[in-house]
Design goal:
Blueprint: H1 2-15, E1 17-19, E2 25-28, E3 34-44, E4 53-61, E5 67-74, E6 77-78, E7 83-85, E8 88-92, E9 109-115, E10 118-124, E11 128-129, E12 133-134
Parallel strand pairs: 2-10, 3-11, 3-12
Antiparallel strand pairs: 1-2, 3-4, 4-8, 5-6, 5-9, 7-8, 9-10
């Protein structure tokens, strides 16, 4: 009976943690801050041989100083670090396709963040797809 309980505990923990790129364990956690209006928007260049870039943005409320937003995973791509611009945190997805790290829906993304120097992730639901921007 103890073995069954121990196996249940271990499998439960594994369901709520994943391995990140460097082999560090991350834990799923509802963040201490609020996330609103998550969107994705392609920027299509007007010049040949330039890559289409995908911007991810979100409004974050009550973000404390002990929290660092690291990156986002969306549609098979990781982003660079999120940067705050006009009350919206934005980043661009890197063009390299990454191995799927967690089963998520096509309208979901994963936010990776540090809180008190501990790594966490949170699944963002209902990512809104905005109309693409056509660049000159």
């Amino acid at each position: 009976m103890r073995i069954v309980a121990l196996l249940f505990f271990i499998s439960s923990f594994l369901l709520f943690s994943i391995e990140c790129e460097k082999g560090e364990t991350l834990i799923e956690k509802t963040p201490s801050f609020s996330i609103k209006n998550v969107y994705s928007q392609e920027q299509i260049p007007g010049q040949k041989n330039e890559l289409v870039r995908t911007e991810i943005g979100m409004q974050i409320v009550d973000l404390e100083e002990n929290v660092l937003l690291e990156k986002v995973y969306f549609n098979g791509h990781f982003s660079n670090q999120l940067i705050k611009r006009n009350e919206i945190f934005k980043t661009f997805l890197r063009p390299e396709v990454e191995e799927r790290i967690l089963e998520i829906e096509s309208d979901e993304a994963i936010l990776f963040y540090l809180e008190d120097n501990k790594k966490y992730y949170f699944v963002l639901k209902d990512v809104q797809l905005k109309e693409p921007i056509y660049l000159p």
